[in-house]
Amino acid sequence: MNVFRNVVSPVRKKQLSTVLFYCLHSVAFCYNDADKSNERSEFFMTEKFICKQEQLFNVAAALFAEKGYHGTSIQDLARAMGMKKGSLYHYFNSKEELLFQLLDEYITGALEEIEGICALEIDPVEKLRRFMLFYSGFYAGDRDRMVLLINDIDKLGEDRRSRIIEKERRYYRALTGIFSQLQAAGVMKPLPRSVAAFAFFGMVHYTYKWFNQGGNISAGELGEMFLEIFTRGIFSEEVTGATHDAGEN
Q1: pTM, two decimal places
Q2: Structural domains in the chain?
């Protein structure tokens, strides 16, 4: 049986292996008896457990984003989940670990997709297009986790925070690597690649301040607009041509 079927949305399917890892890891310390451990492992592998884990992640992300990490108690989470407080510890060991799981799952799923795009032997222009469309749609499409990534990463301990930051640096290296390919191909201006990368990331990351997921523009359409603005600007070809001619005169 495919335990991953119909559990999460398509954009998050690649994150399920990470979710399952945390499911297995979070309570293993509680069970030393071999028989109990085997029974519990079988429970972890069920579709019901994985679905509940994903539901817990989504509810926790929404509460943390709305009330703040410190403003949300385990009791708040239990109430929102309709569970007993003690039952939540089958899924994580502490509130900090839950926050780490949320952020790490979020970043890892996107990172796998991004590094897969970068590994493709395709034209760098197409590679940039795929990168930007995916990144924009992914991050604009999950406001709650974006809020946590920006506002609450400092709530993690040093080791866990460092692991998240290192994965963020891999995003940066992936995008600047594409820029290097574009410049080598002679199709990108000699702009500092770091400036271009942070300009794009900044444009996407702060969509949580203003983008309405239930509005007239979808996350995918927003990604198309960001790609257009970033690669072609806001001027029509007529204005661009007129500006160029005026500069020459």
Answers
A1: 0.74
A2: 10-94 (no CATH), 97-248 (1.10.357.10)
